């Protein structure tokens, strides 16, 4: 009989309005389902609306003022009924989707208070437990839960384990601890959830170190297996290029933590030395207009392109037609985009910022001291001068051998087997 594994992500799982949410869990499931026959299910929790929001709008209706049009109902009585339904019977919001043959239970529940980092995990767990009970009624109790991120999915998995005896493993890939976004009031519960997990899987040693800086020394040995190379990049074939120009590429959300301002500043100096060079940005975000202004003001704006957000096949196409991948992020828990670039045969320049330090070797790229503009310029000039000396095939092989689907699944299944007591663990 196949092992029944329930995937419990902290963020939603691939919702239509935000297809990047839960993407790492989707990549892992794609790899797992294509190589063996475990039985999987997914819970996807969304907190939407709050009790104070409903009460405030009921008062507005009593004053004969219009309610917030974003709410699903508008009359005083309907608002009261909807509030009561969502609070007392959150399972009535459940929707069951089928994702590539895997059932996904989606629940949409209420914040009990105004949204806040301190209280949101309470309401998330409340909704998640309702979804878990409904999942078990429909699909049976899982043999194992794989929770992603300790707050709040790991806390819910720990509650289920204490109540029902279902073991769990816990992957941590959030940068929230590094960014100081986790309230200290949750630290004791997080430590306990990590301690009680059958396996603790930070995606890098850097993540584990970050957690210990916040939580103190953890009494469990981490199992670091990284992330899986997304299927769209597993068989990328790099075309021959006879063009002597150099095309630098970076991919990521346009956010302060991604440090793209430094990259534009460095490229201005590189472009003086390499007038045949271009810099291409793939991704979108709140800094886009600021970065576009910086590019225009740099004097080399005509050689800097902003392509916006692309689908995976579009990202792969840009990687295959580029020469050097540059990743200037201040901190990364792992860096999936780095292994994607390597799988496309590109050397990578990245900041020594956590995860990248555990991926790159001298044969696959260069690590730069964070925020060292001169070092970044030197690395870009070195890589652009390497030209045909770069062994693209060796870089591709390195990515596939270390993070390809077969390798990743072998590591993860060993963890699953040990957690469930399966003979595979021997």
Describe what you observe in this structure.
With 426 residues, the protein is an alpha/beta fold. It has helices spanning 23-35, 51-62, 76-88, 120-139, 150-164, 187-196, 205-215, 260-273, 288-297, 312-320, 336-343, 373-386, 392-403, 405-420, and strands spanning 4-9, 39-50, 95-99, 102-111, 144-148, 168-172, 199-202, 246-251, 277-282, 304-306, 324-327, 348-351, 365-368. It has two domains: 4-215, Glycogen Phosphorylase B (Rossmann fold); 231-402, Glycogen Phosphorylase B (Rossmann fold, 3-Layer(aba) Sandwich), CATH 3.40.50.2000. The protein has 14 helices and 13 strands. The strands form two sheets. Strands 3-4-2-1-5-6-7 form a seven-stranded mixed beta sheet, with helices on both faces. The protein has a six-stranded parallel beta sheet with strand order 10-9-8-11-12-13, sandwiched between helices. Helix 11 (336-343) links the parallel strand 11 (324-327) and strand 12 (348-351). The mean pLDDT is 95.
